[in-house]
Every structure is written in structure tokens, then in C-alpha cells.
Amino acid sequence: MLTFTIRRLVLSVPTLLFIALVIFLLLQLAPGDPMAEVPLTVPPEVKQKMREALGLGQPIHVQFWKWMVQIFWVEPQVLIDYLTNRSALFGWLPDTNFYVPCGSDPQGACDLRVISWQTRSPVMDIVIQRLPQTLWVVGMAYVVGILIAIPIGIYSAYRQYSVFDQAGTFITMIGFSIPPFFTGPLLIVIFSVQLGWLPFIYDTSHRVEDWDSFVFQLRQMLMPVMVLALQTTAQISRFMRAAMLDNLNQDYVRTARAKGLSEAIVVMIHVLRNSMIPVVTVIALGLPAIFGGAIITEVVFSVNGIGQLLITALFANDLPMVQTLTFMFAVLIVLFNLIADILYGLLDPRIRYD
């Protein structure tokens, strides 16, 4: 398993490089100009200097190489500096921490980092500021969705064609078919406008300090979590049901029952463990996908996370921000593919990666 993990990590490097190249070239072909927002009264020579300051005057291969060095070398060292409270990369700068002051660095430290065209700040600093809000909403939604989906899938398969199974199938198909940009406004109209129970704008500046503030945090998280958890529950529960039905009719289940094992042990240990093997793929690969769903949900509920950051960067034609966030999603997909393969070996002893 260790050899397989190391081999997959090594192979993921050229995969990520190819993905980065595709992302970079596609965004280079995208229409728009960062100088479009500059007033018409600015002279052309000043616009040209501004363009060169943003790195737009360099050849494409030079821009790509600089971005790769920043992503794979500079930013990881900055993160290490932040986590270890040391200064390995920017040790020659006085009083430099994770947030390098880009507006006043006479020695050009921020030229080494990926800089947002819109804010003139390091992209990763902005991402780190926005990431906790997204993790709160997305992480909670995914955990809630899995905790609801797995029991529903197990019971629906065990009681096939029962009223519970048919009702669960109907509800999950509706939840899987309705997109978040429809579910979100619908919940806002029902629970915020009509009933007035929940706030429809997510207050990212809210801090939990006592019980009342904790209750308010739960209330404002409820609708975004419900929207994201609905699709997660629908997808995983259907896969869980199908996998359980496939294993319930296997010979080893009849053998276990013939040996006198209780029905709970047969279903919850033998059948469930084998049924989780295909479901692990859905759970592992669904986490990057739910970040994509969070983009729409964050815009609908005004959650100040990385999803809303990506939409803002797209409208502002902030290519460094869009490139970095898109590449982060690609890294998540490659990483969770590896995690799914490793979990296969843990769940099924017959799988070997020798």
C-alpha cells in the first residue's frame, strides 16, 4: 500500500502539470481585458506600464513558467513559514509573516507570489481568509448528507419496494434533479420571506461567543447546508441502496444466515462493508463536486467564501485568481481519487496494489 501511494503521488505530478497547462491556455483565450475598467482619461503609455506591471507584456510560456514556480514552490514555502512561524522564503525581509504587505514592500517580495489583479494582494492570502466560511458550510453539508444518506440507502435496500423505499426514491430523485440555484431561492421565499424563521443573508462577520450567538449561527447555516446536503443525500443514498441490493443476494449472505448469525450482524457488518466499496468512490469524488455546488449556493445566500470569490474574479476578469482557484479544485479531484483507491484496500482485503 505504501509503494502504491508513493507511485500514485509521483504520477499525480505530471497530471497536475498537464491540468495546469490546460487551465492556463484556456483562460488565456478567454475574452476580456483587465485594463477595461481603467478610465479613458488614462494615457495609453500609462496603461501599457500598468499592463507590464501585471505581467501581461511577457510571452505566454514565461507567464506559465512563472505561475508554476509560484504555485509549486513559492506558495508552499509561504504556507510553511506561516505554520511554523519561521521565515524560510522571506527571511531577508524585516518583520515579514504570512501576509506580505504588497503595498509597501520595497524589495519586491510580492513579485514572487501570485497577485490578484483586482485587489493587488496575494491570491492565497485571500483564499485563506475566505476558506473557513466555505469549509463550515460545505463540510457541514457533506457530513450531514452522508449521515442521512447511508442509513436511508441501507434501510431502503433491506425493505425493498416498501412504502419507505418508494417514498425515499421519490424524494431523492427530486432532490437530485433540482439544481441549487432553484432550491436556494425557494427556501428563501418559504423560510425567510413567508415564515420569517431564518435569515436569508449569511453574516460572515458573526462570531460565536455565547449560546444565543451559537443558535444564530445554526439558523443562518441551516438553509445553505440544506441546499447542499439535499443533492449529496440523493446521490449517495441511491448508490448505497444499489450496492446493498447487489450484496444482499450473494452466496456469502446466505452462508452467514445459515450459520446462525443475527440479521443485524449479517447486514451491518458483512453486507455493509462490501457495499461501501463502490460508495466510497462516490463519497470521495463527491467532495470536490460539492465545492462546485457551493459556488452557486454561496452567491444565493451571500456566503463570503471561495465560491463567491471565484464568481467575483470571473466578473472582474481576474485571471490569477481564477487560475489559482480552478487549479485548487483540480488538486482536490486528484487527491480524493487517491484517497478512494487507498480506502478500497482498507475495505476489501482482496484488493492488493502490489
List keywords for this structure.
2 domains, MetI-like fold, 354 residues, 11 helices, mainly alpha
CATH homologous superfamily title of the largest domain:
MetI-like
Q: Tell me the number of structural domains.
A: 2
For the largest beta-sheet, the strand count, sense and barrel status come to: none
Mean pLDDT: 77
Radius of gyration: 25 Å
CATH topology tier name of the largest domain:
MetI-like fold
Q: Secondary-structure element order, as H and E? A: HHHHHHHHHHH
Structural class computed from helices and strand pairing: mainly alpha
- Examine the secondary-structure arrangement and name the CATH architecture of the largest domain: Orthogonal Bundle
- The end-to-end distance, rounded to whole angstroms, is 7 Å
Low-confidence stretches: 88-109
Can you offer a commentary on this structure?
With 354 residues, this protein is mainly alpha-helical. It folds into 2 domains: 42-112, no CATH class; 124-347, MetI-like fold, CATH 1.10.3720.10. Helices cover 71% and strands 0% of the residues. Helix 1 (2-28) runs antiparallel to helix 11 (319-347).
What is the strand and helix layout of this fold?
Blueprint: H1 2-28, H2 44-53, H3 60-84, H4 123-158, H5 163-177, H6 180-194, H7 211-248, H8 251-258, H9 263-301, H10 306-315, H11 319-347
Structure in a nutshell:
The chain is mainly alpha-helical and 354 residues long. Helices cover 71% and strands 0% of the residues. It has helices at residues 2-28, 44-53, 60-84, 123-158, 163-177, 180-194, 211-248, 251-258, 263-301, 306-315, 319-347.
